[in-house]
Amino acid sequence: MFNRDTVIPGLYRLPEDPVGPRVLIPSFVSATAVRGAFGWFSAGWIARLAPGLAEYIDRRGTSPIDFTVAPVLFPAEREAAEQAVSLTPDEASRRVVDVFHQGSVNVSALAQHALDCLAWMIATETLRLRIAVPKANSNYHPKIWFFDDGTDQVLARGSGNATARGITSGVEHFDVDVTWIGHSRQRVRDGMAMLDDWSQGKSQGIERVVDLAQALKEDIIQTAPESPPSPADYVQAAADDDDPGWAVDVAARLTARFGRKVTQERPRLAIPDGLVWKAGPYRHQGEAIAAWESGPNPERGTISMATGAGKTITALISATRLQDRLQGQPLLVVISAPSIPLIQQWHSEVGKFGVQAVVPTLETNTNMALTNLFRRLRGGGTHVVIVTNHLVSSPSFQATVAQKTPSTDTLFIGDEVHTLGAAKFVANKPGFFARRLGLSATPERQYDPDGTEEIFAYFGDPVYAFGLGRAIGFCLTPYNYYVHAATLDDDEVARFERLSQRINVAMAIEANDQDDQDHDSLKRLRIQRRRVIETARTKISLLRRVLEERDPRSLDGALIYATAKAPEQFARIGSLLTDLDIRWAPVTQETTARPKLLASRLTAFSEGGYQVLLAKKVLDEGVDIPRIREAFIVASSTVEREWIQRRGRVLRRHCDKPYALVHDFLALPPALLIAHDTTNVQKILRTDFNRAYTFAKYARNATGEKTVFADLERIRLAYQSNGQTSLLLQRSGDFFISPGTPRGPTW
Fold first, then answer.
1. Which one of 111, 169, 223, 276 is at 20 to 30 Å from 231 when CA atoms are compared?
2. In this predicted model, what pLDDT tens digit does every residue of 133-158 receive, in sequence order?
3. Extended strands (E) in 90-179
4. Alpha helices, DSSP H, located in 89-171
5. pLDDT digit string (tens) for 271-319?
6. What pTM value is reported for the model?
7. Apex CA 432: angle with CA 429 and CA 437, to 5°?
8. Among 370, 381, 425, 427, which residue's Cα sits nearest to residue 403?
């Protein structure tokens, strides 16, 4: 945040009033975004503002500096710009290697090598230059600095350009406005509007605006004329730039004035105060850490914990203890996760341990983010990078990490490790990580023993397991479980029967012929028949009845899972929620691809703005939304890992959630159809019933009257009686709603 006692608005007269140390430098120190518009532009401002600029470059979370300048550059700056557009980030970084010490910018060196740093900033997109081309009868000559810390803004404009003399020694003036003072606020907003317009060429005097590379390509940038400023002025400015003592002096004055160091200390993980993990409800975390540290293959292994039991915390404590055992040696921790929401969640948790993680996927320039990471790693400390499964499987990423860390201690943490059993990671496993920790509620890959074996061979065998039975009531919320069922409609029954007949024929062929092609055909037919069950239209009608039974007005903190295999089911559920006047928001891949939008929706949901989140698979993997206290699982997956994860979304502890509600929706063939079919259809029933019985096993309402086991028994008997002793679910379009379903507010 801006230091409001230091950045004082008003009129500054140069050179008597030093606007650099008093306004521009402290604004760089606090800002997360910097913009500007200038007629004359040189590298001199880099030297003059080096103490603040150094902190801006070092600090995570800052945006590229964005300047819109006139198509006139001094010879040295033009040469630096031409070189910059042809350099790779790595090549540019090698030019300024002396500027970085222990991973952070050295202020004196930054000032001394201002031109090289200008080229580096352009090449790495730390600085973005736009060129405003004025019309023939016009001139582009603004002088505006704008700083934003995410809450407040500072605007400095006047007669001084972005040159050494323009902000220090020239006879100039600056008018400074800030948003935390009422009468000043509107001028800041007007200045922002001007910057927006000029950067987009919205001015009667601007012909167009192009980026630097295009301007150089079209040769529209002129070399600065001899006047103004004169060659003697420029020589003097260059001499000033070569004086590192000036920047050192400003750095000393800045430290004395603000009581803070310009360079960063070496980052270190630290277990948050008050975190209890060796005893009490979360003592299993301490047990898991001990097992990983001293197992058969120390500092390798896989930990299996029920969703919500604290896998992330366990892993970060393990990393912290490893760091401490290394006694000050540099440590690189690489964490992979399968989705953007999980990556964001990891980033937040790492921050609680005192280190700001690098997340290349969320950076504007991935290469630059990694370049800066490895530069800081050379300075020592513990550094954390969080990547997607896709990136960690990339040969180029692995080659870069291996090259940059030949003698650095490393730890690789694989979250939702079952996802790393996929072919791409298996084919490109990074072998250079000495220490490895795999995490999952379900590390085994269902129907994929080879993938499971690859996971355990790489990360190490399971060293600790903490299942749902131990977690309920300790670190997870107890829950009630309700099973609702509907039979397929007539069209779906007809399709189901046709596929069943084709499956019977294919099974007979396969029994006599071991051709792989026949086996693949049978597999495809079974998948198609299963999809009829998962996407059944009657589930939507059943959901409506259940929601009406619950009373839509009473819904609060609910999650509905739709299948990812049929977009129309998601759309129909959305229309249903709208018809019932339920406030809802979608969470899809499109949502998670826009982190700010996702965060906004989750915040609104947590604050009660939305009653319901409607999601597909994107919330399957470990996302922590504790306020969810009721789940409607319309997408009945056959994959055990998926339905365990979905149940886990509602079991996170929350102060307003003494227990949770889980509604499971079954779509089944009519019971009368089963009586006339072969036993291969019974397998579908067994799959759904096995899931339901597993859910029911740990439920609060497992036994007694109007309880889930009683409901499951009634459904089971309907399919065993052939219509003789039960009237349930016999024909197309029949429904069963659990009699124990609560009405109205529950908590």
1. 111
2. 998 878 889 999 999 998 899 999 99
3. 100-101, 104-105, 127-134, 143-148, 153-158, 173-178
4. 89-95, 107-112, 114-123
5. 999 999 998 888 999 999 999 999 889 999 999 988 778 899 999 999 9
6. 0.59
7. 70
8. 370
